[in-house]
């Protein structure tokens, strides 16, 4: 077989990287200059990610290789898979990153890899790539490295000196599932790596006895990813795991990726993928835990099954299950309680608290502040509005459920 060109490798290894949800493309194949014209919203290896301040940036998102010595049942790149294989050398990754960057096509690199020979050998090559970019070429763009499970703590420590963000995927929300479907991986080792990153980040904030700060360590923090629907874990248990990760390891984000059936899959895996709406609801619930003061237990308890309601968003589902706490008097409620009102976002609540100091807040004021009153009206009282029996009405949920659609027979 003739050696693959760099472009052929890029096509294979950028496609293999699409399963990592830590940065997903926001482009569309409807506008693609490969069929003619100028410019493109999507191309091999380029994805779009969002920074904490809301900026959209373009990243080169690739695997160093999709060869792997592990046989994780849910992974398309497992050793027993018949997928087409390719491998970049460290120098090729450096070249690609610099050439894309010089052409103003990307602002950084998102690099992951299958495991070749050993975790340490793979991790050392990824560190070499980041070091070469930073030290030899003065690269100041964003670098996100996926750390390799079971790689030595020393290599992970080196990676944090050159990468803006580190991440290690826990893959599945329960240890028992990881042991069954990814027998070569150990959940304890993954969590130990997360703990090492947190400790290194904290140590980098402390000044030495001379007053100097140590070198920055993964200044953009760390993240992880969980596959949803590959096992029987409920949404409540998934959110419990996420809450523990946020509190125990100071993660910036937990990403959720709906399981996608793969060729020649294990009999232990489901035959169909979960609805994408489940992934969406988990992100909404995650947002409630991080910014609205909700606990995983109370979000999961809104439905007897422990799974999130796919028809309505998690905050509305919680409010409907806890109607005794409503309606809320907007003039007197605390910030924490206002954040629990469906249709009120964090900015809306901040505006309400500021406006209350100047006088009563009325229905029209809430509309101007950005409140979604079609959701909130059943859960609040105002000088010019009271929901009456609406809050406790038996048909309240039906008001928010999607309207039925007539399906075509042919």
Key terms:
alpha/beta, 7-stranded mixed β-sheet, 15 helices, 410 residues
Structural class designation: alpha/beta
Order of helices and strands: HEEHEHEHEHHEHEHHHEHHHHEH
The Rg value, from CA coordinates, equals 24 Å
Strand order of the largest sheet: 1-2-3-4-5-6-7
Low-confidence stretches: 24-34, 36-43
Estimate the strand proportion: 5-15%
By DSSP (H or I, 4+ residues per run), the number of helices equals 15
In one word, what is the shape? globular
Describe the overall structure.
There is one protein chain. This protein has 410 residues and is an alpha/beta fold. 37% of the residues lie in helices and 10% in strands. It has 15 helices and nine strands. The strands form two sheets. It has a seven-stranded mixed β-sheet with strand order 1-2-3-4-5-6-7. The protein has a two-stranded parallel ribbon with strand order 8-9. Helix 3 packs parallel to helix 4 and helix 4 crosses helix 6. The longest helix has 18 residues. It is globular. About 5% of the residues have low confidence.
Write the layout of secondary structure elements.
Elements: H1 6-16, E1 46-50, E2 56-63, H2 90-102, E3 108-112, H3 119-136, E4 142-146, H4 153-162, E5 165-167, H5 175-181, H6 187-203, E6 222-228, H7 235-249, E7 253-258, H8 276-291, H9 296-300, H10 314-321, E8 328-329, H11 335-338, H12 346-356, H13 363-369, H14 373-376, E9 380-381, H15 396-400
Parallel strand pairs: 2-3, 3-4, 4-5, 5-6, 6-7, 8-9
Antiparallel strand pairs: 1-2
Summarize the entry for a quick read:
Helix content is 37%, strand content 10%.
